[in-house]
Specification:
It contains two helices and five strands, in the order βββαββα. The protein is α+β, with helices and mostly antiparallel strands and 111 residues long. A hairpin with an 8-residue loop joins strand 1 and strand 2. The longest helix is centred in the C-terminal third of the chain and has 19 residues. The model has no long low-confidence stretch (mean pLDDT 90).
Length: 111
Amino acid sequence: MGTWHKSSCVCCGQNCGLELQVEDNRIVKVKPDKDNPRSEGYVCRKGPKVAHYQHNADRLKHPLKRVGAGFEEVSWDQALDEIASKLRGIVDQYGPKALAYMGGGGLSCHL
């Protein structure tokens, strides 16, 4: 039997409470967390599927950079440095109102 851990769903900004059973560093069972003060045992259909997203063979595990017609793995430091440099260039050229954040949907893209 695995160990149960309290967590929260990252599929949207509601962060419903989950309890995860973990065996050999893998999520094997998921249930709503009835003790969670926000969701009080509620979870939509996405929450119980977090193991599918976490352990999916096609899940990206490293930043990818477009090179020619394909992609190559780069380090997180390289990816963040290049993104920051491009954003800085936009602000320097067009001013701070040239950027806006739009998001807050699913998969931990919280506002």
